[in-house]
Amino acid sequence: MAAAAGGWWAAACEKFRSARTLSAVESRKDPESEPYRSKYSARALLQEVKQQLSAAEEGGEARLLAVRRAVLEYELGVNHTDTEELSAGEEHLQRCTQLLQPHRLSRDCVSLYIQAQNNLGILWSERDEIKTAQTYLESAEALYNQYMKEDGNPPLDPSEHFMSEEEKLTDQERSKRFEKAYTHTLYYLAQVYQHLEMTEKAAQYCHTTLKRQLEYCGYYPVEWALNAATLSQYYLSKQCFMESRHCLAAASVIFSQAGQVPSAEDNENEQDQQDLRQRKAEIARCWIKYCLNLLQSARKLLEDDIGEMDSFRQMQLKAQRKKEEDEKENGRKKAVLFGTSDICDSVLAMEEKVSSVYPLDFQEAREIFLVGQNYVQEAKEFFQVDGYVTDHIEIVQDHSALFKVLAFFEEDYERRCKMHKRRIDMLEPIYADLNPQYYLLISRQLQFELAETYYEMMDLKVTIGNRLEGLDSHTIKKVNSLAQLAIKYYELFLDSLRNPDKVFPEELDEDVLRPAMVAKFHIARLYSKLITSDSKKQLENMQTSLEYYTFLIDYCEKHPEAVRVVETELELSKEMVGLLPTRMERLRAKLGPFV
């Protein structure tokens, strides 16, 4: 080879290798005061090789030299983008693609061209020009597909253009590197589609990327696991519980690989260990959401008009289940699943710990609940209230929600009441310690949830008492206490909406409109539920109840757009406003003329 003749070529190859080593290895050791020291040294070497190539006699090897120049332009482009010099990086990458354009489908150019397109895509993403990034990445994807269709042989890796014949890679290694470059294309496309809110396409590309990373062993366990756990939440939003569980099971199995190397051998410091603990807790939180969503979706299927178990529907679904499970299992074989043979068994074993089908009775619901509860404890180990207030409270709220939905499946009202008491016991201490000045939104959420929980417990106690043919004095005291606590928390929530002068807003913001109206409605109902033998007190309670019902009606008359938000509550309020005055008149008549 004329261009390779003489000692200059061997020296050029050596400089090229040194530049790559400086960029990939030595740069990790650069001090914080000079973060790009090795990158700059690598750039200088690449520029020297570029000058040597320019001085070489082209002769009949113009194409060979053009490809080598393209390799150098690519390396310089990556170098400049790594050092945050995007404009210079873009120029080099563009020169690379221009040099390769006529030969981009050839075996010696296709991998380099795709990698240049990938890097241009990343560069434009960093500039927040997502549409431009999409164009480059989709172009890289199309080129890969065209090459595989028309040729398909393992192409040369860019680094091979600066290697001697005996150093060249095997076809197996070439294929591995080419597939890795294409996997990067899909990975960046997944992010681009996510930015463009093309969520279904983003999920599809993310799933394919994760699958390919496992197949070609091109992944970091922690990063892979987090991406799989994140993807599980997309499937969860689509109620694809089997796919969501599979992503989470794979995430847990792959994450476990991250902790297999002892920390001393891996040079991991305390911060690295802390990061690992946090990532593990984040995956646990995704498992909590999975269990919670599965239980809540089952509840929606099974509840009747008043929110209780529809026994007929329950029987129907149990009868259908066998057939549906068989169909689902057959469809499973066609689904895109993760896992090479060596991890498949571990993933399947993890999946078997929790169902992916709707629970139809208490026992089935309890099994899912217990899995969720175990992950709550795991997540709380890291996200403790000291240091992670918001995260900790969200996890406790999810724990409360798990108890709430499990209570739906419980037929014994006393046991159901105890489940709600567990919710109170976990939420009240957190609320008591919370400063609403700094955590107003969370404070409101807790106020409303505590009010609803006490309200639910009061209703249950009334039902239990009525089943026993009347309420004894102890039950009456308990019912009144629960009702007053529910009123207290509803009032605290409503007070939080007042302005600094303690005036309730004339028009409520959209995000608090429904909860505020529901709070007013429930307070009205709670006052009418208070049990007292004092007729005068009873009349006072009825008057208060009437005032709250009237508020809701008046508000909807002034703000017609609120009607659609509280249609049921409005209808019942009108009914009660029609009935209460008559009942109050009867009571006044009994009390005599001095009331």
UniProtKB/TrEMBL annotation:
> Does Cytoplasm appear among the keywords?
yes
Q: One GO CC term of this entry?
A: cytoskeleton
List the Gene Ontology MF annotations in alphabetical order. kinesin binding; protein sequestering activity
Q: Which domain of life is it from?
A: Eukaryota
| Keyword field contains Plastid | no
- Give the record's keywords alphabetically: Cytoplasm, Cytoskeleton
Places the protein is found: Cytoplasm, Cytoskeleton
**Any Pfam family hit:** KBP_C
Q: Which GO terms describe its biological process?
A: central nervous system projection neuron axonogenesis; microtubule cytoskeleton organization; mitochondrion transport along microtubule; neuron projection maintenance
Alphabetized SUPFAM superfamilies for the sequence: TPR-like (SSF48452)
As given in the record, the signal peptide range reads none
For this chain, the family text in UniProt reads: Belongs to the KIF-binding protein family.
What's this chain's function?
Answer: Activator of KIF1B plus-end-directed microtubule motor activity. Required for organization of axonal microtubules, and axonal outgrowth and maintenance during peripheral and central nervous system development.
Q: Can you say what this protein is called? A: KIF-binding protein
